[in-house]
Specification:
The longest helix is centred in the N-terminal third of the chain and has 40 residues. A four-stranded mixed beta sheet has the order 4-5-6-7. It has a two-stranded antiparallel ribbon with strand order 1-2. Helix 2 runs parallel beside helix 5, helix 5 crosses helix 7 and helix 6 crosses helix 7. Strand 1 and strand 2 form a beta hairpin. Helices cover 50% and strands 6% of the residues. It is an alpha+beta fold and 540 residues long. It has four domains: 137 residues, no CATH class; 80 residues, no CATH class; 140 residues, no CATH class; 67 residues, no CATH class.
């Protein structure tokens, strides 16, 4: 039962045969190791007795080395002991001309008939051929890391086997396929001592290829994140330029004045962002270098306290994802980013760097304990707080209406957790959310609870308090009072998406519902939009 021919009657599928042989080898390797351990203990006891009996002799049992003359000459040339695995499994030396191992009859028939289309991408014949060769290299020659010359020999053997022209392109195609397969096999044999030796030798801090910088690219805009701006009247437009100029030096303004000007220039700023580059936006509105104003704009757009949300959700998600201590020296938000990148197999340098960003999408750059947020290789804002840094990183996608990078699953999960929004989740992220029982709608539930707590019923005992609250300025982005302007002019923003029906995931009725793996990403827009909120404020 140690080869394909013997088990073909029981297991007809070739791929399953290879899996069976691989598992069988693990079992027998464990048994051989146990036997060798027992034998070594017996030899050790015997050697101690012999050493005592021959105290005056210089010969010791452990000094005796087997001579190469004791073995057949062919054995010394073709085999080597697997000493690194602690067993007695013999592996052959790689030959000068590699031969493809035996394959199933139906696959051999396809080769003879010239049905090479069945060896193309996503065909089972191609997978069987690569599986067979990789299994042969690992179990017969112990080749987890073939040399470039050996890769050429194997690629040439596959091309000759398929009766294809022996060209460089044909060889490269099969070399790439085999390299990918061996990379996966190395991850499956992570406990192999040979692989551990390679990793300890080459996997050092700072080693490996540097992350490729995408210098000539810009972060793509997402038109579905654009807010519909209701036109304002001429009187407001003439006053906007003056207020924008006042915001050029935000450091000289009082906090309340600064926030008031920021709210009043909100519609003009949103329209400007839609049509300009990142560098032009920062030059026109230096206020984006202030984290307070960025968080205020997120509140105007989405009614979300992003700085508070990141502090509430970070430790909750960490407790559900982390099963063993990891990155314990980092702060909680940075640790969460690293853990998620490890879960999804992403490069942390695309989100967190020590010197310069490698991608035009939002990136954190940590220099001298100060974290800078970059977009399109332009520094936007800086902070000393890791919590605020991660919140600002997520905020950039809303502020500049950016789409997500195709491989940014970590950012997608963080965005979903902070916004209670599942529209941008991929299937792999949904699987992790379901497996780890992460409540994406916890922040929405917290927001609804806060609104309920702030609702005070009107009664004679608190009528004076209610009157005082009504006298306070509650309009967030009005430029004039409701007496000076009609309600249509005060209504500056509506949370409707341009060109399509809005997509959202309002699950306020069931916050604890789990996210289905194959859930449709399209849903009905949340009826509690900023438009209704602004209307209620303006009419008050």
């Amino acid at each position: 039962m140690n080869n394909v021919e013997r088990i073909s009657v029981i297991i007809p599928k070739f791929k399953q045969q290879l899996l069976f042989l691989e598992e069988r080898e693990k079992i027998f390797r464990t048994n051989v190791a146990s036997t060798e351990l027992n034998d070594s203990l017996a030899i050790s006891t015997t050697s101690q007795s012999l050493t005592t009996a021959t105290a005056n002799s210089s010969i010791s049992v452990f000094d005796i080395e087997p001579s190469a003359d004791c073995l057949p000459k062919s054995s010394t040339n073709n085999f080597t002991d697997n000493q690194s695995d602690g067993g007695t499994i013999a592996y052959q030396h790689f030959p000068d001309q590699y031969d493809i191992p035996p394959l199933p009859n139906n696959l051999m028939k396809d080769v003879a008939d010239g049905m090479l289309i069945k060896f193309g991408p996503h065909y089972s014949n191609r997978q069987i051929l690569i599986d067979t060769v990789s299994y042969d290299l690992i179990n017969k020659y112990k080749l987890f890391y073939p040399s470039p010359k050996q890769f050429d020999q194997i690629g040439s053997a596959i091309v000759k086997f398929l009766k294809l022209p022996l060209t460089k392109d044909n060889i490269s195609i099969w070399k790439d396929a085999l390299q990918t397969k061996l990379k996966r096999k190395r991850s499956e044999h992570s406990d192999n001592t040979l692989l551990q030796d390679y990793r300890s030798k080459y996997s050092r801090l700072g080693s490996g290829r540097p992350v490729k910088r995408r210098i000539n690219e810009i972060a793509q805009r997402d038109r579905y994140k654009q807010m519909m701006i209701i036109p304002y009247n001429d009187h407001i437009a003439n006053d906007i330029d003056t207020k924008v100029n006042q915001l050029h030096d935000v450091s000289q303004l009082d906090t309340e004045i600064k926030l008031n000007l920021w709210r009043q220039t909100f519609p003009y700023r949103r329209e400007y962002i839609r049509n300009q580059t990142t560098a032009e936006i920062i030059q026109k509105f230096p206020g984006y270098s202030d984290s307070v104003l960025i968080f205020e704009e997120i509140k105007l757009l989405l009614q979300i306290d992003l700085a508070g949300a990141i502090r509430r959700q970070t430790q909750i998600i960490l407790d559900k994802i982390v099963s063993s201590p990891a990155f314990v020296t980092d702060s909680a938000p940075i640790r969460l980013m690293k853990v998620l990148c490890r879960e999804f197999g992403e490069t942390i340098q695309h989100l967190l760097s020590d010197n310069e960003p490698s991608t035009p999408y939002p990136t954190l750059v940590c220099i001298d304990d100060t974290i800078h947020v970059y977009v399109d290789f332009t520094s936007i804002v800086s902070t000393d707080s890791p919590d605020d840094a991660v919140a600002l990183l997520i905020a950039m996608y809303t502020i500049f209406e950016l789409s997500f990078d195709k491989k940014s699953r970590t950012v997608r999960l963080l965005y979903a957790a902070l916004h209670a929004e599942t529209r941008y989740l991929t299937n792999s992220v949904r699987v992790l959310i379901k497996d780890k029982n992460i409540d994406i709608y916890a922040e929405k539930q917290h927001h609804n609870q806060q609104q309920q707590n702030q609702t005070i019923p009107i009664s004679p005992s608190n009528s004076s308090t209610t009157h005082e609250n009504e006298s306070e300025p509650t309009v967030q982005i009005e430029i004039h009072s409701s007496a000076d302007l009609p309600i249509q002019d005060n209504l500056l923003v509506s949370n409707q998406l341009i060109g399509t029906t809005s997509l959202s995931d309002d699950r306020g009725t069931n916050p604890s519902a789990s996210v289905d793996t194959y859930e449709n990403s399209e849903g009905v827009e949340n009826t509690s939009s900023p438009q209704s909120k602004f209307q209620s404020q303006s009419t008050s």
